[in-house]
Amino acid sequence: MSKTDEQKTQGVVYLVGSGPGDPGLLTLKAAEKIASADVIVYDYLAGHNFVERAKPDAELLYVGKSGKRHTVEQFDINQLLVSKAREGKNVVRLKGGDPYVFGRGGEEAEELAEAGITFEVIPGITSAIAAPAYAGIPVTHRDHASSVTFVTGHEDPNKEESAIDWSVLARTAGTLVFLMGVKNIGKISSELISNGMAARTPAALVRWGTTPSQVCVASDLANIASECRQRGLSAPAVLIVGSVVSLRDRLSWYESKPLFGKRIVVTRSKEQSRKMADKIGDNGGEAILFPTIEITAPSDYGPLDRTIARITDFDWVLFTSENGVDHFFKHFFDLGKDVRQLAGPKFGAIGPVTAKAIRSRGIKVDMLAKEFVAEGILEFFESENLRGQRFLIPRAEKARDILPEGLIRKGAIVEVVPVYRTVRPSGPNIDAIKKSLEDKSIDAVTFTSSSTVTHFMEMFSGARIKDLLDGVLLASIGPVTSDTLVRNGYRASVEAEEYTVDGLIRALVDHYRSGKNTA
Ligand code: SAH
Known about the structure:
α3 packs across α4 (105-115), α12 (322-334) runs parallel beside α13 (352-359) and α14 (374-380) packs parallel to α15 (402-409). The chain is 34% helix and 20% strand. The model has no long low-confidence stretch (mean pLDDT 92). The relative contact order is 0.08. It folds into four domains: 12-124, Tetrapyrrole methylase, N-terminal domain (Cobalt-precorrin-4 Transmethylase, domain 1, 3-Layer(aba) Sandwich); 129-256, Methyltransferase, Cobalt-precorrin-4 Transmethylase, Domain 2, CATH 3.30.950.10; 263-293 and 425-513, Rossmann fold (3-Layer(aba) Sandwich), CATH 3.40.50; 297-423, Rossmann fold (3-Layer(aba) Sandwich). Strands 15-20-19-16-17-18 form a six-stranded mixed sheet. A five-stranded parallel sheet has the order 3-2-6-1-7, with helices on both faces. By secondary structure, the protein is an alpha/beta fold. The termini are far apart. The structure holds S-adenosyl-L-homocysteine.
C-alpha cells in the first residue's frame, strides 16, 4: 500500500475538553464529536455523563488515574491514540476542563503530529475559571485584579529545582489559580508568604467545582491550609489567591440554589428524562438517570390503522399523555396522512404538556382538564349530555379504565386504541444505582407515572429494597402515582400540586426550601 492510501484510511483524533463537571458546560462542538466518535479515550475528570451521548457501539476506554497510580501510562495512551487512528477510527480523546490546561494535551498533540496523525483541538471550559465562577469568584475584576495566572500546584517530583518563581508570583497584584495543589497547599501558602505576599490575602479552595458536590472553603493565605485540612478536603480542587476571593460573600449564586447538592433519580423513559434532568440541574441538583420504562410500538398496529381510516366518525379524540400524542401522530403521518384528514372531531387533553403536544401538530385543543388526571376529563363533561357521542382514546396498551368507564356511564360510545406500549428497558445499570442507594448518596427518587413505580419495584425485586430506600425521599407526580407507591408499601413524601414534571420539580424545590432535608 502506498503512503497516500494509508493516510486516506486514517482516522482523526479530536482532543476534546469536556468542561469542569457540570454537563451543561460541555460545548456544542465537543458534544458533536463525542456523538460521532468510534473510540472515546477518557480520564477520571472527564467522567461526567458523556456516555449517553456516545454511539451505542462506540468503544469507551478509561485511561484515568485509579488511586495514586496512573492506570495507563502516558506513553501507552499516546500509542493507543496513534494505533486507533491508524485503524481508521475517529477517536475522541476526552479530558476534563480544557485539554491544553495542565492536561498533557500538548504532549499528546506532539505525539500525534510526530506520527503524522490528523488531529483537532476542541477547547473546553477549564476548571481554573469555572470552579471560581461557580463559587462566586470572578478571576479578574477592575477593582481587584488585572491579571490571572494559572499555576500547577503539583510539580514533577523529580525536578531538581522549582520551575515556579515564587518571588514573582508573590509580587503579582493579580489573581493566582493553582490546580492540582491540594496536597501542597501548605507549601504553596508558605512559599507565597515567605516571598512577601500578605498573610491576610484572601484565599479559597473550591473542590468539585460546578458539580452538586461543590465545596468552597474561603479564608486567608495564613489559614487556608489548616482549614482545608480540618475539613479533610482532597483533590480535585483549585486554590484561588487574591482579593477577588472577597467578592464571594456577595456573588455566591450556585451554592444557594434550592436543589444544590441533591442527587435525584429520574425514572422516566430515556427520551423524556433529558428535559427533567436539565430542570433539576437548573435548580442546582444532580439528576441521575435510571430509566425504568421504555416506550415502544404497540403489539399490533391493526386496531390503530382501522381507527385512523374512519377518524372523522368520532366526535372527540382524547389524549391522556404526551406519549399518546407523539405515537398517534407518528403513526398517522407514517401512513402518509396529514392534518386535513383530521377535520371533524374535537380534541381534548389531560394536561398542559399533552395540550402543547397536540397544538404543535397544528390542532386546536378544545378541552383541557382542570385536574390533570382522568377524573379531570370526566369533570369537564359532567354537565354534558354524551348520549350517542363517539369518543376515541388513543393511549398506552395498559392503562386505567376510569376514563372510558366514566364516559360510557354517561351514555358515550368509547373506543380505546393502543398507540404505544410501556415496557421495562433491557439492561439498565441496576448495580450502579444500587450501590449509590447503599452508600446513601441519593437524596430522592422521582416517579412520574404508575409504571415507573411498578417497574422500579420489579427491577429491585430480591434486593432489600426497604433498606435501600430508607431515608430516601420519594417524590410523586400526582395522586395516581402516589397510590401505586402506597400499594407497594411506600409513601410519597412529596407530591406535585400540578401533575406535571414542572409541578414535581416545584414540589421538590418547596420541600427543600422549607428546610426539610430528609425524606
Ligand atoms: N484540564 C483540566 C485540568 C487538569 S489537571 C482543566 O482545564 O480543568 C487536574 C486538576 O484540575 C485537578 O487537580 C484540579 O486542580 C483541577 N480540577 C479539575 N476539575 C475540577 C473541578 N471540577 N473542581 C475543581 N478543580 C478541578
